[in-house]
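Example record for the data management plan.
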Amino acid sequence: MKVYWAQSSTNSEVDIGVLEESALAMAQSTIQFAINESGLSRADLARRMQCNRSFVSRMLSGNHNLTVKTMAKSLAACGFEVRFEPVRLQWNWVSPPILPRDEVPANAGTTERAA
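Corresponding structural encoding:
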């Protein structure tokens, strides 16, 4: 089941810690994607960044406070660049709306062709 973020009228508090950890996880996964796409090993990335292999491991472990400069340097070493896009904040978890059965296509989730 998918879970969506939605604005709640009952609780407008935003958990900054969750936002920070989410941003860090997205940055780390973006770097890992660039490493995979470029075909580099973590050791190759460390050489290109002129740092120790252990730094690359820490950077991707979740225990390192990744800076924008380090992210830019790591992506550039893989042949990519950083791009940011602001997205309006939506907070609090809610379940997605459930569609009535007649609004779901008859062959949804199957490999059958519609007649």
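Summary line stored alongside the record: The radius of gyration is 20 Å.
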